[in-house]
Amino acid sequence: MGLSAKLIRKLEGFDSKTKDMLLCFMEEIEEKTTIIAVERSDFNELKDIVRQLAEAQNRTEKRVEELAEAQNRTEKRVEELAEAQNRTEKRLETLAEAQQELAVAQKKTEASVNALAVTVKDLQVQVGGLSMAVGYGIEDKMMPYLRRFALKEHGVNVTLIDRRNIFYPDGKYDEINLYVEGARDGRSIFLIGECKAQPGKKDFDRFDKMLTRLQQVLKGDVIPFMVGYHYAPEVETYAAKEYPHILRYKTFQISNHEVN
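User: That's the sequence. What structure does it adopt?
Assistant: Structure tokens below.
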């Protein structure tokens, strides 16, 4: 305990017993004052802690509010997603129904296509048969005039007129519509004719390929010619440019020759 010089001088004026009593009293007062000071310091510290707790609570409440708002937004988004999923499921159901309808329609279409293919095939057979019949009809009509035609147009003395199959070493063969054998100036001559009602470009293509094969087996000169009722202008132009060696005749040009 610290005592001032003035207080010490005054204590010197008392007897020792009184002096001891006063000193004890002063020590008691000092002790109580220290306790009060300590308690006030603790109180101030407690106030700071309470203030900090209050601020923390405010921040926590604010954060809780923010989390609540975020949860509300999340719940709203979840509802929107649920609605979108429902719409998607409905669209998928509609798509599934459409696919089923499409599958049924496709089966019907395939059945119709198959039926059409059969019809087309039958038609091709019929047209092919008709074309063949017309071709054979032209051949039959041209046969009586070929001897005179060969002699007058090409100077060939005919020894044989036929519709003939020419076979090759590999076993394959070509059918010759108009086959004429003869001679000219001591050389063997073959008049090879193809008959079509209205010859097309592909007919000339096929005929020329056949001529290439025939020239490998026929021992003599080959005179190729095409006979038809009519030639389209573009066909005549094509034939003249691509196959000038194939002669073109219309049926009347051959039938005008007298029959011997």
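The first strand starts at residue 157 and ends at 167.
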